[in-house]
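TASK: fixed-backbone design
INPUT:
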């Protein structure tokens, strides 16, 4: 620590040249492994052509265990739009009621055999809608039949003995259904702070519930939604007055989910189909091919510009961008992220963000080199001076992506998600990878080739 014109400056500890080389070697090794993870089928085909089959089975195993999740517009499938009739639901309860209906529909389509369905609640003016996207599903009539029924809540009593029936062998139906339930709410025990679920029935439901509990003291009452059991509490005593409390080892989240499911079956929220569309797989494949081609052309043009204009730093930036891409694709597999056409547009835009960071760094580097500073010092100073601008621009873009994801529709959310992830990875690529690659060249052998580090118009 030393004084300089009245100001205190801290000398940063620099990484040794050997450590830099090890780090750079690590980047290349990780990049190669991630490339295999991202495209195992393509790597397997290359090894087949070279008559190398040592990793053939393992590479094909990666494809099945970690596939890319493709959206409706790429894979093809069914797109349905429902209008929800909420005129009989209190305005304060509409959002939670529609969220609960969404959960029921997700469960239904999962039972239908659809992996990762997209079911979203949207509000347009005073109209509430449910958007259902079933990637890979072409049987639109069956999908409509499975989804279109209003959730049904019912209370069942224990059978005297296990019945040999195709229906529920343990519980039998009772007259008590969701139409008699006024509402269910989450409560917390004032002493133990344990979450409980409180039920309240209307007048007719109170009478049915009182008779049901009187008949089944010491037995369980099965609570079913769409024929699926969601709870089976034990009756401790006859419950009159139309109010009951379900206790147990609920977490707050479990109690909230149970309440949502029960309210979904109790509240009259009919849904009507207003739009349906089947997207063929061939159309989706064509859209994917065109998007990938556009991305490849854009990347090649950026790479050509960076190399011609920024010379050696530009070539190193292209290497960093390649590592950026393999990291990004690996994250999309692992999270996983559903890739749509809009999402691919977000990836392409994030590549531009990564290049923008490199441009700021290289322009600062050029300014320091024109001051006749040593190459190593110029690199450090260039990164230091560019960091503030890179940080501010990326943070503002990341905040924009978060707002789009929070407020946007399904298409906008796909774009915002891939853009946000891309921005965060691009900051690592520009600040860490590019910097280490440049530091690897910052030695006495390159001092006499300083022109390789200056852009095309530098004098």
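OUTPUT:
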């Amino acid at each position: 620590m030393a004084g300089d014109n009245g100001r205190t400056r801290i000398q940063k500890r620099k990484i040794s040249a050997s450590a830099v080389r090890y780090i750079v070697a690590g980047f290349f090794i990780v990049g190669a492994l991630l490339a295999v993870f991202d495209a195992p089928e393509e790597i397997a085909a290359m090894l087949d052509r070279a008559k190398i089959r040592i990793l053939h089975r393992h590479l094909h195993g990666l494809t099945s265990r970690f596939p890319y999740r493709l959206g409706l517009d790429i894979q093809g499938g069914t797109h349905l739009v429902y209008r929800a009739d909420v005129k009989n639901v209190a305005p304060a309860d509409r959002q939670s009621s529609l969220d609960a209906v969404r959960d029921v529909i997700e469960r239904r389509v999962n039972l239908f055999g659809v992996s990762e369905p997209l079911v979203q609640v949207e509000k347009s003016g005073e109209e509430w809608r449910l958007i259902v996207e079933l990637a890979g599903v072409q049987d639109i009539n069956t999908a409509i039949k499975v989804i279109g029924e209003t959730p049904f809540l019912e209370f069942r009593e224990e059978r005297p003995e296990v019945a040999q029936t195709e229906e529920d062998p343990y519980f039998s139906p009772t007259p008590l259904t969701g139409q008699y339930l006024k509402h269910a709410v989450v409560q917390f025990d004032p002493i133990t702070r344990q979450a409980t679920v409180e039920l309240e029935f209307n007048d007719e439901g109170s009478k049915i519930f009182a008779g049901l509990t009187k008949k089944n003291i010491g037995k369980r009452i099965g609570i079913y939604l769409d024929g699926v059991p969601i709870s089976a509490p034990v009756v401790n005593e006859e419950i009159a007055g139309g109010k009951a409390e379900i206790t147990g080892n609920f977490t707050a989240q479990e109690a909230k989910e149970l309440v949502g499911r029960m309210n979904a079956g109790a509240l009259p929220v009919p849904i009507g189909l207003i739009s349906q569309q089947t997207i063929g797989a061939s159309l989706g494949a064509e859209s994917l091919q065109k998007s990938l081609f556009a991305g490849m052309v854009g990347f090649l043009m950026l790479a050509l510009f960076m190399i011609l204009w920024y010379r050696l730093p530009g070539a190193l930036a292209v290497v960093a961008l390649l590592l950026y891409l393999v990291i990004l694709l690996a994250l999309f597999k692992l999270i996983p992220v559903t890739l749509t056409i809009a999402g691919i547009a977000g990836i392409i835009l994030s590549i531009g963000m990564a290049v923008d960071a490199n441009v700021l760094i290289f322009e600062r580097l050029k300014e320091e080199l024109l001051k006749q500073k040593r190459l190593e010092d110029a690199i450090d100073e260039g990164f230091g001076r560019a960091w503030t601008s890179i940080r501010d621009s990326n943070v503002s873009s990341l905040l924009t992506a978060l707002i789009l994801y929070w407020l946007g529709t399904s298409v906008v959310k796909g774009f915002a998600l891939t853009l946000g992830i891309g921005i965060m990875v691009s900051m690592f690529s520009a600040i860490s990878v590019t910097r280490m690659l440049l530091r690897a060249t910052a030695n006495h052998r390159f001092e006499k080739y300083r022109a390789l580090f200056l852009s095309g118009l530098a004098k």
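COMMENT: The radius of gyration is 30 Å.
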